Amino acid sequence: MPEGEAGSGFQPLNLIRPLLDAVAFAGYVNPSPIQSALIPVAITGKDVIGQSQTGTGKTAAFLIPFMNSWRGNDPRFPQALVMTPTRELAVQVAGEATKLSPSRHFRTVCCYGGQKFGLQMDQLRKGITLLVGTPGRIFDHLSRGTISLDHVRYVVLDEADQMLDIGFRPQIERIMRKLPKKRQTLLLSATMPPPVMKLVQRYLVEPEHINITPETPTVDKITQKYFTVDEHNKFDLLLKVLDREKPRQCIIFVERKRSADRLYKDLQKHLPGVNVTHGDLEQKKRERIMADFRSAKITTLIATNVMSRGIDVKGISHIINYDLPQDLESYVHRIGRTGRMGRDGKAISFVTPEQGSMLTGIELMINRLIEEDHFEDFEAWTPRATTEAEAPKASKPVFGRSNKKYSNRL
């Protein structure tokens, strides 16, 4: 945390005193770039598109403007709505809202699938200012008539690109049509593909676009390396990497839920403090695992892409891509779980000999070469044998590059 009196850097933003006190109590000193850029614009009531990298403090950036204008409300109806793509992110946003709350009368309720309706109904009956949740569960409540959005005046679509990627467009569209036309809408998205732009054109009015994302993803604080490894050698390589690195906290990313469970079953025999999370686990169990990970009771967490976006755990020192992600952007989101808020971190990727082109695509996207790593006493992969007829082809530089280190990507 930067030096100085807590909250002092937020004073020029002209926040109300209770909110400024809450910011200081939360330990925030100076606003991050996205907070400095977005908060003054959103406070004016304008619709906003916000683009920034993960781990930059955007949650506080979109919560603070609404809290600054809140002066009490009828507790039966929410005044603000935040939609997120995952349960974990919804819980995290709700937790941040509770931490920054300017009054004990400001109530946040979090709704998501996997949690019993009865429990959510009990929370709703106690009063609500801010509703945070996933589009699927919010739409369920709307369909049942258990919530009303007639009084909502502030709406946030968080991680909009991911919400669309995982199929929430129909629910988002139906929810947005139920909202009052007179409202302020903020859309936060790491990328702005055409489907996200359609949402912008349909539901935002003359928005101001705030983009502090560099042309190439900034990963300068993260040391990145890769190992070439045959699929059947991955587990043995993982054990050697963990023994050498001794991570403070680590996420190991895999592509499939079944693979995550299998890896967890094998790894817990060799390492304490290991657990696994993915979308097939019961919600209570996922919440307990995340709480234990945040408190560092769990030091090594095996996860699918459910953990690749928006999850802010500051103690993560290492990311291991046990499986490379299928899309390039997920690589940046995954490794962004470390190196949070300017801290250093390390990302290690396992690349099979068939995935050389995927690795090159990642390097082109981040505009830097990823250094190869290896163990002198461990042969992680076996070079393919080439016939005499194939030898000239195999000797050419891979992917048109002359650097000899790329020859092992065949």
From TrEMBL:
Keyword ATP-binding part of the UniProt annotation: yes
Out of the domains of life, which is the source? Bacteria
Keywords annotated in UniProt: ATP-binding, Helicase, Hydrolase, Nucleotide-binding
Query: Could you tell me which residue ranges the Helicase ATP-binding domain spans?
Result: 39-210
Pfam family of the protein (one) = DEAD
Where would I find the Helicase C-terminal domain in this sequence?
221-382
Query: Which parts of this chain are annotated as the region Disordered?
Result: 386-410
Motif: Q motif; annotated at 8-36
- What InterPro entries does its record include? DEAD/DEAH_box_helicase_dom, DEAD/DEAH_RhlB, DEAD_box_RNA_helicase, Helicase_ATP-bd, Helicase_C-like, P-loop_NTPase, RNA_helicase_DEAD_Q_motif
Matches recorded under SMART domains? DEXDc (SM00487), HELICc (SM00490)
Record's keyword annotation contains Hydrolase: yes
**Gene Ontology MF term list:** ATP binding; hydrolase activity; nucleic acid binding; RNA helicase activity
Where does it sit, as one GO cellular component term?
Answer: cytosol
Where does this protein have coiled-coil stretches?
none
PROSITE patterns to which the protein is assigned, alphabetical: HELICASE_ATP_BIND_1, HELICASE_CTER, Q_MOTIF
Q: Which residues form the DEAD-box RNA helicase Q domain?
A: 8-36
The Swiss-Prot or TrEMBL record describes its family as follows: Belongs to the DEAD box helicase family.
Q: Which PANTHER family match?
A: ATP-DEPENDENT RNA HELICASE DBPA, ATP-DEPENDENT RNA HELICASE RHLE-RELATED
For this entry, the protein name equals DEAD/DEAH box helicase
Q: Which organism is it from?
A: Telmatocola sphagniphila
Its organism's taxonomic lineage begins at:
Bacteria, Pseudomonadati, Planctomycetota, Planctomycetia, Gemmatales
